[in-house]
């Protein structure tokens, strides 16, 4: 986005300066609105207006990037927490299952009569 904005800024500045030159030479046939004609006073005004527009666009791009990074980091942290909790629960269920199996085998051994083995 920044590369596209920089390219757009360069083209807009080029077009604006060319338009200013045409206005100063009287070659522009189109009627421009008064608020637009006020920008085409001199080269410094044009460069400042286009630069301000460029700065605002870059600020919006930066703000959007910050928002995306923040939301992505939040999502990632939530995902890791969920996975961690699920693994803890899975581990506890597995340990419980192993303990129940040990208790079952112990009961089977206790109930086994020694005479049957010998």
Automatic annotation (TrEMBL):
This is Leucine rich repeat containing 48.
């Amino acid at each position: 986005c920044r590369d596209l904005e920089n390219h757009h800024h360069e083209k807009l500045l080029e077009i604006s300066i060319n338009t200013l030159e045409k206005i100063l030479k009287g070659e522009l046939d189109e009627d421009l609105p008064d608020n637009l004609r006020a920008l085409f006073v001199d080269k410094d005004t044009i460069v400042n207006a286009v630069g301000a527009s460029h700065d605002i666009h870059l600020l919006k791009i930066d703000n959007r990037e910050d928002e995306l990074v923040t939301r992505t980091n939040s999502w990632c942290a939530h995902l890791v927490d969920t996975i961690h909790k699920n693994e803890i629960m899975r581990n506890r269920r597995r340990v419980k299952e192993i303990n129940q199996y040990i208790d079952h085998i112990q009961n089977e051994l206790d109930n086994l009569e020694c005479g049957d083995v010998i």
